[in-house]
Structure formats: C-alpha cells, structure tokens
Design brief:
alpha/beta, Phosphoenolpyruvate Carboxykinase, domain 1, Phosphoenolpyruvate Carboxykinase, domain 3, Phosphoenolpyruvate Carboxykinase, domain 2, eight-stranded mixed β-sheet, 30 strands, globular, binds adenosine-5'-diphosphate, binds phosphoenolpyruvate, binds manganese (II) ion, phosphoenolpyruvate carboxykinase (ATP) activity, metal ion binding, metal-binding
Length: 541
C-alpha cells in the first residue's frame, strides 16, 4: 500500500492538539509516570503490589450493540453487513468533530505503539485517551517501540477513547450515548461513553482483521504457545472459554492470550500483553496469571481490594463478574521475547458447553474443523451477562469472534482451510464447560483435567491412541488419556440420567443445524457432512 493512502484521512494531530495547549498532551509516558498521573487525578487506587486498580462504572464489558462501521465506497462490498451495524460518513464526521471539540478541553494521554510482532505486518497505532490508566492499559497490552523508533512515528491507525463523551443518538446516528465508531477507510476508531478498556484492544484487533486477509494473513481470535520441541499451538475460543488460562502453561512458552496472525512465516502475536479474567483467580490453578496480577503497573479493572490492606479479593464479584487484569507479556516468566513462532502443529478450538453434551476433547478432521470454526459455538451462563436466567444460552459466534471479524466468514474460513491443509495441522475440539449434567446440575471440568488432555494432544501422542466415533457429532473421541478418569471422556456416562443426556444432545445438534443454515451456500459438501446427524435435513441427504 502506498504511503499516501496509508496516511490519508488520518486524524490530524494539530486538530486534536492545537500547539497552544500542547502542555496538556502527555505523550508516551512510561509506567511509573502513568501510575503517578492516575493516582494524582483520582482515577484509581494502588494495590499493595503496586497494581493500579480502577472501576469502569456502568460498562464492565464490551458494548457489542454500540459498535458501528462506517459504510462508504470502500467498505460497502468488503464488510459482512449481516453481522455489522453501519454508520454513514456524515454521522461519523459529526462525531469526529464533536470528539475534537470535546478533547480540546481535556488533558490527554497518547501512546504510540505497534500492533503485530511480525515486522512486515506491523501496524503503527496511536492511542489517545482521556485517562492516564487507559494509557497504561494499552501500553501494557500492545507492543512498545524502542525510544529511537518513536521519533518521527507516523501512525497508520488511530484510536481516540473519551469515556466521558456522550453520543447524541439522533445527531450521531447511535443507539445510545455509548459509541464505538470504526472508520476503516480513514483508519480511525472513536470510543465514547464507556471506559471498559477491552474496547481499545478489540478495536485495533478489528482493524487488523479487516486489512490482513488482503495480505494473505489469517487473523485469529486465539491464544498461542510453543512447546519445548518448538511446536506451536493455537487456541481459538470465544470469551470465557479458556484462551488466556490455558495458554499460560509453565511447560510451554507463551506467545499471547488473544489475537494472532498466521502468515507464510508462521504465527505472530498482534499484542505485547495479556488481559486475564480475575474472577475467582486461584493462585494454585493459575500461578502465572496470579503473579502477573500482583505486580507494579498491572491494571486491575473492577477488582475489589481491601480498603486497609489493599490486597485484591479476586473472589468478590460485586463490581463485575468480568473483572480483569492487564499486564505486559514479560510479567509471565516463560513468555516469548519475539512474539513469533513457526507454523502451528495443532489447532485447538475451545468451547464452554454449558449443556454438558460435548466431550472434553475430540479429534477433528479438517472438514469438521471448518464446520466448528464457522459455527463458533459456546454457551453463556448466569453471571457473565446481566439479566440472564438459570438456563444456559447457546452462542454461535462465527470464526470464534464474530464481533471483531468484519469480513464475510468465508474469507477467514478459506484462509484457515488452506493453512490447515498446507501445514498438515492436527485439529481438536476441547470443551472446558460442563460435565455430569448441564450448568446448574453438573460441574465445570477442572482446569487440571483440561490441561492433562491438552498435554496429551499437543505432545503428538494422543492422535494415535484408540478413539471412538461420536454417534451424533461424528468426531473421534479418545477412550483413555493418562491421568484422566476415563468416564469423563464419555459425557453420557457422567450424567445420572443417560436419556436426559440424549435429549440434550438432540437439542444441541438442532441448534447447530439452525445456526449453520446460513453458511450452507458457501461451503463444500465435506464441511456440510460434518454437521451433527440425527436431524431431518441431514438424514434426507
Ligand atoms: N477447564 C477449564 N479450562 C479453562 N478455564 C476454566 C476451566 N474451568 C474453569 N475455568 C475458568 O474459566 C475462565 C476462562 O477464561 P479465560 O481463560 O479468560 O477465557 P478467554 O481468554 O477465552 O476469554 C477462567 O476464569 C478460568 O479460571
Ligand atoms: C478482551 C476480551 O477478550 P476475551 O474475553 O476473549 O479474553 C473481551 O471480550 O473483552
Ligand atoms: Mn482472554
């Protein structure tokens, strides 16, 4: 891409920061100074460890319904509009003008950072925020340039996040006062009315997911790590399925916990830090994440701390179920220094099946992997979202990340399918959800069981072990794994009432079918044949 088009339309720094008031723009401050600003400005509190603790108020998670993509000549044919809300160019321009006038009266924090560990695919990003702690957050999360690289740093993508800005629905074309407006053509994202920091990192991610397919790079909502033998693995999964938890593994080098690309050279992290859930964080089950969450300059979002000792109580969900910890990768002892690794040997698709149906691990053929990638199944349970009843809710979020994958799923699906074939990758479906019954009746599969299953799969041993074929889903399920109670491998045997298991399985299979109908026109027959059986539309084939 030519430089002129890269920079064209980018928000002008002179507009945002007139020279007369440049005093109030804090550029590329380092951690200690950002913490000082945060404390001085009353943005949060210091934990005993030196972590910076903030509350985000009303929004403690992403506002999916308030995210917009500007519809223009370039995006019109490129975005999968079935999955995105459009905003007109005029509405965006009004919003931008109002962001600029709002920002004029504020002290602002600016971080110039890279997204993308692979040099050829590095995106120069500028993140402008109202709060010092947001600057600290994104500095922890993205990749920090060398001081010499900051001179003459020309951003190729800008995010402006002003939590106290309120959108005017009628004037800006929004649904509420909260807005995440993505202008991919101008390469600007405007975030207002929410201070949940995850919006910033996922905005950068969404833009990379828009541009990288054009460079023949597969962008993935996944974590990744590397074994001692140099074999890398990626773990796709929707929120809460275990990407962050399971990728932090003392026996494997951590590449990253959430966003990666797969190019001709192998895989690379987009980020330079992690964003872990801290609710019920256990020091013994997740020692690395626990340590990274108790250190100077880690940002703790909506974590309750003791008012006297300033020690976090990770069991307290009064502020949010989705409490978070943001820390740089070097807070994890065995993290990768480069953020890059070779082509993966294994792909793991994580799901948290709250219906208690799916086995804790299954081996997928490439066609089954494509079916599950396009389906993007997991389930939500009470606690993670406001207003949920006792029943688990199925979620089908294509490519395991629909809110951040702007193009049609076939774009990502085809890239992945070719990469799996080209590199002869072994694919697995891993259920980190419920066993012995659905949510409320059974229990969640212990982390140590999931870890043992993954160890067997990633070592290369498991794929040659005896397997049974699941009668409904058709994938291969190991009959024994060292260190794991064999009963757990056959969910039907963990249910007190096997007929109830069969009925639940039929229900889940039907949900898969109903969801997959929209993809049927785009996939080859082998992928369609990976649908669960026992349903009329399949039986008729
Ligand atoms: N068997 C399991 N595997 C993975 N995570 C589990 C398991 N059982 C419980 N959990 C909990 O589920 C949550 C998984 O969340 P996380 O790793 O942050 O997911 P993601 O990064 O995919 O959003 C963590 O809070 C973890 O402690
Ligand atoms: C940061 C997020 O990712 P995840 O929950 O997948 O870790 C998020 O969804 O806001
Ligand atoms: Mn995560």
């Amino acid at each position: 891409m030519r430089a002129a088009s890269v920079f064209m339309g980018l928000i002008s720094m002179a507009e945002l920061f007139p020279t007369s008031s440049s005093q109030r723009v804090r550029r590329n401050l380092l951690e200690a100074e950002l913490v000082e600003y945060g404390v001085r400005r009353g943005e949060g509190k210091l934990a005993a460890s030196g972590a910076f603790v903030v509350e985000t108020g009303q929004h403690t998670g992403r506002s999916v319904q308030d995210k917009y993509i500007v519809r223009d000549a370039e995006t019109e044919g490129a975005i999968w509009w079935d999955n995105a809300r459009g905003m007109t160019e005029e509405e965006f321009d009004r919003l931008l003008a109002d962001f600029i006038s709002f920002a004029r009266h504020k002290e602002l924090f600016v971080q110039d950072l890279y997204a993308g560990a692979e040099k050829g695919h590095q995106l120069k990003t500028r993140i402008v925020t109202e709060h010092a702690w947001q600057s600290l957050f994104i500095r922890n999360l993205l990749r920090r340039p060398e001081p010499s690289e900051l001179e003459g740093f020309l951003p190729e993508f800008t995010v402006v996040d002003l939590p106290s800005f309120r959108a005017a629905p009628l004037y800006h074309g929004t649904r509420s006062e909260t807005v995440i407006a993505c202008n991919f053509t101008k390469r600007i994202v405007l975030i207002g009315g929410t201070s949940y920091a995850g919006e910033i990192k996922k905005s950068v991610f969404s833009f990379l997911n828009y541009i990288l397919p054009g460079k023949n790079v597969m962008p993935m909502h996944c974590s990744a790590n590397v074994g001692k033998d140099g074999n890398s693995a990626v773990f796709f999964g929707l929120s809460g399925t275990g990407k962050t938890t399971l990728s932090a593994d003392p026996s494997r080098e951590l590449l990253g916990d959430d966003e990666h690309g797969w190019s001709d050279n192998g895989i690379f992290n987009f980020e330079g830090g992690c964003y872990a859930k801290t609710i019920r964080l256990s020091k013994s089950a997740e020692p690395q994440i626990w340590a990274a969450s108790n250190r100077f300059a880690t940002v703790l979002e909506n974590v309750v701390i003791d008012p006297v000792s300033r020690v976090p109580n990770f069991d307290d969900n009064r502020l949010a179920e989705n409490a978070r910890s943001a820390y740089p990768l070097d807070a994890i002892a065995n993290a990768s220094a480069t953020g890059t690794a070779g082509h993966p040997k294994n792909i793991v698709m994580l799901t948290a099946d709250a219906f208690g149906v799916l086995p804790p691990i299954a081996k997928l053929t490439p066609s089954q992997a494509m079916y599950h990638f396009l389906s993007g199944f997991t389930a939500k349970v009470a606690g993670t979202e406001k207003g949920m009843g006792p029943e688990p809710q199925p979620t089908f979020s294509t490519c395991f990340g629909a809110p951040f994958m702007p193009r049609h799923p076939r774009v990502y699906g085809n890239l992945l399918r070719n990469l799996i074939a080209q590199h002869d990758v072994d694919c697995w479906l891993v259920n980190t959800g419920w066993t012995g019954g659905k949510y409320g009746e059974g229990t969640r599969i212990p982390i140590k069981v999931t870890r043992a299953l993954l160890e067997a799969a990633l070592s290369g041993d498991l794929k040659d072990q005896p397997m049974r074929t699941d009668p409904v889903f058709g994938f291969a399920v190991p009959v024994a794994v060292a260190g794991v109670d064999p009963k757990l491998l056959t969910p039907r045997e963990t249910w007190a009432d096997p007929q109830a298991y069969d009925a639940m399985t039929a229900k889940l299979a039907q949900m898969f079918h109903d969801n997959f109908a929209k993809f049927a026109p785009y996939v080859d027959s082998d992928v369609l044949k990976a649908s669960p059986v026992g349903h009329p539309s399949v039986a008729a084939e």
